[in-house]
UniProtKB/TrEMBL annotation:
<dbReference type="InterPro" id="IPR036374">
    <property type="entry name" value="OxRdtase_Mopterin-bd_sf"/>
</dbReference>
<dbReference type="Pfam" id="PF00174">
    <property type="entry name" value="Oxidored_molyb"/>
</dbReference>
<feature type="domain" description="Oxidoreductase molybdopterin-binding">
    <location>
        <begin position="35"/>
        <end position="179"/>
    </location>
</feature>
<dbReference type="InterPro" id="IPR000572">
    <property type="entry name" value="OxRdtase_Mopterin-bd_dom"/>
</dbReference>
<feature type="region of interest" description="Disordered">
    <location>
        <begin position="1"/>
        <end position="22"/>
    </location>
</feature>
<protein>
    <submittedName>
        <fullName>Sulfoxide reductase catalytic subunit YedY</fullName>
    </submittedName>
</protein>
Length: 199
């Protein structure tokens, strides 16, 4: 049994000068998942940041909706080589969620409903580069795309934008996530084609 959604086939199309190397442009939004799509009602959803010292900070769905919202328009790049340009999202910046949290961590491990994890340097979640996104293209984020909320870290390959996100654990040392343990690159910069370990 494969680890990518059935029926997905990568394909090459014409490239554009603003695409990372090895990518092709798509106008649709391919769905790739490593398992079944979790169904998470918003009245049971929560987002938790846990620090390396064990402190926990929690937000319910209503609390997340009450935080300042941002509407980034960003390009996204999948490790399977498709890129989608000018995507429109709405969500809460990680800067807002991390504000006031005392930590010496250098890394974060994102956790999703369904058990998926992915690791990122904490600096890549700061300075307006990452969001907990809950709307896409002016509509609630569909479950197959990670709804009710997903991590959005568009400057890295899209597997780092964990679907169905439920929290992040702040860490002093880097800990590989699901795909990274399976051989994908620890960082995943599309402009440097960091697809797999050793790239």
């Amino acid at each position: 049994m494969g680890i990518v959604s059935p029926g997905f086939r990568g394909r090459r199309r014409s490239t554009a000068p603003d695409l990372p190397p090895g990518q092709y442009l798509t106008t649709d939004f391919p769905v790739l998942s490593a398992g079944p799509t979790p169904k998470v009602p918003v009245d049971r959803w929560e987002f938790v940041i846990s620090t390396e010292a064990g402190a926990e900070y929690r937000w319910t769905w209503d609390e997340l909706m009450g935080l300042p919202q941002e509407t980034p328009t960003v390009d996204i790049h999948c490790v399977t080589r498709w890129s989608k340009l000018g995507t429109r999202w709405q969500g809460v910046s990680l800067d807002t969620l991390l504000a006031g949290i005392d930590t010496d961590a250098r890394y974060a491990l994102a956790h999703s409903y369904g058990g998926y994890t992915t690791n990122l340097p904490l600096t890549d979640l700061r300075e307006g580069r990452a969001w907990v996104a809950h709307r896409f293209d002016d509509a609630p984020l569909a479950p197959e795309h990670g709804g009710p909320a997903r991590l959005l870290v568009p400057h890295l390959y899209f597997w780092k934008s964990a679907k169905w996100v439920r929290g992040i654990r702040l860490l002093v040392d880097d800990t590989p996530g699901f795909w990274e343990t399976g051989g994908y690159h620890d960082y995943g910069d599309p402009w440097r084609e960091q697809r797999y370990q050793g790239d």
